Amino acid sequence: MELKATIIGYVRKEEGIAPYIEIDRKYWGATLNLEKFSHIIILWWITERDNQEDRSNIQGTPPVENAELSGVFATRSPRRPTPVGHTICSIVEIDQERCRIIVDHMDAFDNTPVIDIKPYLPSSDRVSHAKTPKWFDDNVYRYSSGD
Amino acid sequence: MELKATIIGYVRKEEGIAPYIEIDRKYWGATLNLEKFSHIIILWWITERDNQEDRSNIQGTPPVENAELSGVFATRSPRRPTPVGHTICSIVEIDQERCRIIVDHMDAFDNTPVIDIKPYLPSSDRVSHAKTPKWFDDNVYRYSSGD
Q1: Which of A61, A129, B4, B106, by CA, is between 20 and 30 Å from B52?
Q2: Please, which pLDDT band fits residue A147 given cuts at 50, 70 and 90?
Q3: How far apart are CA B3 and CA B71, in angstroms?
Q4: Chain A residues within an 8 Å CB radius of B87
């Protein structure tokens, strides 16, 4: 069975402006009502890690102080069997004319393929009290407090 | 460019026991330290929707009261260009001997391929105040309050 992702757009990063997702015009209709959400989940393809060596990577140490060697499913390493990236962003603006979703930040390179966008639903996506290992304690909280 | 996902395990659902992800033994090392997290993000392949018609679907109306026609990127419809599912689960137990991650719930069918598991990091994944359209207001909150 082959599981093939569809590219629905690309991450664009240009000097001096906010990053945005440029959606393929044929998929633009799939953004109807997206402006009613404040946040989205962007799934993207880590193309620079889509090679046999990186996809065979099983363990690594997160690049934070005192981290322990961990399995890649216990890290957000880009070197993993399916090189798919997962980023939650705040929607800054939706540019209907140019088929762009302008976001507040994006941790993928310019021209990275985007394979799906999902609305952030607090009912299923927000976890109030999630436990993580202590080496992630010092992470900076982007959209919530550290409680 | 072909973007091919790797199957790292399968969703298993058996009568009378909690659902679990059975990880391919060759990827089991990738779960090292996963027990230090309380929640995970499971990315899975919606195989029953992996056909040309469903993958061409652009808009639909969420199956909740008073919902408006929306683009699929503004819904969690399984009928979308890349049929990838995204579920946040609580880890119930990790069965080292049988290579199983037992979870509290799973909204995918038995034998669904899993393509990635990521640890839930509140720093990047939790959004305290997310706006959604009013038709999602009555959703039941799984891991947080509705505030």
Answers
A1: B106
A2: low
A3: 23
A4: 124
Chain A residue whose CA is closest to B44: A3
* Calpha distance A137→A41 (Å, rounded): 23
The pair of structure tokens assigned to A121 is 């639903």
List of residues 6+ apart from A53 with CB closer than 8 A? none
Task: Mark yes or no for CB contact A119/B34 under 8 Å.
Answer: no
Residues B2, B3, B9, B11, CA torsion sign: negative
- Report H helices in chain A: 52-55, 122-125
Give every CB contact of residue A141 below 8 A, 6+ residues apart in sequence: B122, B123, B126
Could you give the residue ranges of the DSSP H alpha helices within A3-97?
A: 52-55
CB B55 within 8 Å of CB B47: no
CA atoms within 13 A on the CB side of A70: 27
**B123: how many CB neighbours lie within 10 A of its CB?**
17
Q: What is the pLDDT of residue B69?
A: 98
pLDDT tens, position by position, A78-123: 999 999 999 999 999 999 999 999 999 999 999 999 999 999 999 9
Q: How many helices (H) and strands (E) does chain A have?
A: 2, 9
Which tokens go with A147?
Answer: 């409680």
Q: How far is A121 from chain B (nearest CA, A)?
A: 7
Do B113 and A3 lie within an 8 Å CB cutoff? yes
Hey, are the CB atoms on A116 and B74 less than 8 Å from each other? Answer: no
Give A120's DSSP letter: -
pTM of the model: 0.98
Alpha-carbon gap, residue A120 to A39, rounded angstroms: 5
Give all domains of chain A, ordered by start, each with its CATH number. 9-46+83-122 (2.40.30.70)
